[in-house]
Amino acid sequence: MSLWVAGIIILIVKLLLVLVALLLFAAYLIYVERRLLGFFQLRLGPNRAGPWGLLQPIADAVKLLTKEDLSPTGADRVIFLYAPVVVAAAAILIFAVVPFAPGWTFRGQPIPGVITDLNVGLLYVYALSSLAVYSVALGGWSSNSKYSLLGAIRGAAQMISYELSLGLSLVPIVMMAKSFSLVDIVNAQARCPFILLQPVACIIFFISSVAEMKRIPFDIPEAEHELIAGYHTEYSGMRFGLFFLGEYVTMVTLGALVAVFFLGGWRGPWLPPLLWFLIKVAAVSFVIIWIRGTLGRLRYDQLMHLGWKLLVPVALINIIVTGGVMLAWGYKV
Amino acid sequence: MHQRRNWLQISGRAVAGLTDAFAIVFRHLFRRPVTEEYPEFKRVLPARTRARIILTRDPDGEERCVSCYLCAAACPVSCISMAGEERADGRRWASWFRINFARCIYCGLCEEACPTLAIQLTPNFEFCERDLLTMVAEKQDLLVDHGGKNNDYNFYRRAGVDMVGGKGTHIGEAKTLNIKSNLP
Questions:
Q1: In whole angstroms, what is the distance from residue B173 CA to residue B175 CA?
Q2: Rg of chain A's alpha carbons, rounded to an integer?
Q3: Which residue of A17, A47, A56, B131 sits 20 to 30 Å from the alpha carbon of A108, by its own alpha carbon?
Q4: Is position B177 within any domain?
Q5: Is residue B13 a part of any domain in this protein?
Q6: Please, what is the end-to-end C-alpha distance for chain B in angstroms?
Q7: Distances (CA, A) of A275 to A27, A85, A100, A253, A270
Q8: Where are the domains of chain A?
Q9: Is residue B74 situated within a structural domain?
């Protein structure tokens, strides 16, 4: 009985720690992105709030929380008010299956380095990342604004298109790890991270996840110059903040997923596993910011061409080749 | 004529172009930002920068303004108002003069309209206030004890005095000619 209670307490503490760490990481990712983009463009970025501007995310949070919560006339109020919750919740929930450390032992009891080790973890990730489409589509539609609606339509089309290549790119990983569980996938990379065995899958997954995040060069759903802010044009205050937070939590989560699927998760020499995991997530995030500082926005037709005519066929060929090689080398199924 | 390339050449060129772009952006991380951080670093502004308005005096220490209302008429946002009066010796002056800086757009049209170079714009732009009413400047706030950009110009000596010194006594005025002695 006492063991059971202790287990619950440890689980709750771990949940809180992971949630706080995830939100802090996302908040500071906004700061890092603004500073890095500034440096890329020979500017300084935000450097006034606190030393080196480190209190900027807190100042932003206070500002967003104290702003007026507007909803436009003619908006579908219930959907309008709850759409941003979906994107933030889905992004945070994905992290439940991401293993961030090998685990610890506390008084002889093992504490796994993951919130929950689902045996269908990968499907869970797909399901939740698909849910974000609802937030975009419903939020844009319920705003009763043409900019929001255009952004939502583009967003839904883009996210549904790139989900295909996102899913197909990970099939070879599942074939090689022989499991849907993210913990098993990390364990399968004990000898060699999958980026060396599956570079094509890694590139496809990375491009597709940038498209899922709706970031440059795939940011036509929120193209500032055409659509003001796309699907969240009409949102203000913390509801806009939730969209914003969801976007950056998604960035952290997809960075973590790239780390888990291709970079060996928390595995690495010399440094503690948790630190390796954070370094890998930060590195993926840096590359995403770097891309934003370099590339322009794809046109709608270019976006669809890239997704349907290049990434999906290449991902399918990659699956067939992987299967053929595994058969030829006599992999036991 | 357009030359056809195979897909390997095309993708090779694309990768080379992308690598170049990414390398250039990365190198910018290590360059010094060009930002001038304003409150700590203040750039010296040119003398003719248009910001806070002053009323200047001529070299004799008299107010240049003769209250002709031309600046008020030229002002596109009607932020200048005044009342003209005449002194005992016949020189005009503004008994009160008011500029609403909350409304002023610093276009400089008043300075161009002024015939006596009395109203001038200065580079001082740091006078924002939270309360709009404190932005209304009265004559004592505007009047300075120098000639601004034209320190030695004296309008009154040239054209302001009516008949005090008699004809031909003003600066730049030709000597009076005896028309009777000018016969052929």
A1: 7
A2: 21
A3: A17
A4: no
A5: no
A6: 86
A7: 19, 30, 9, 16, 10
A8: 65-328
A9: yes
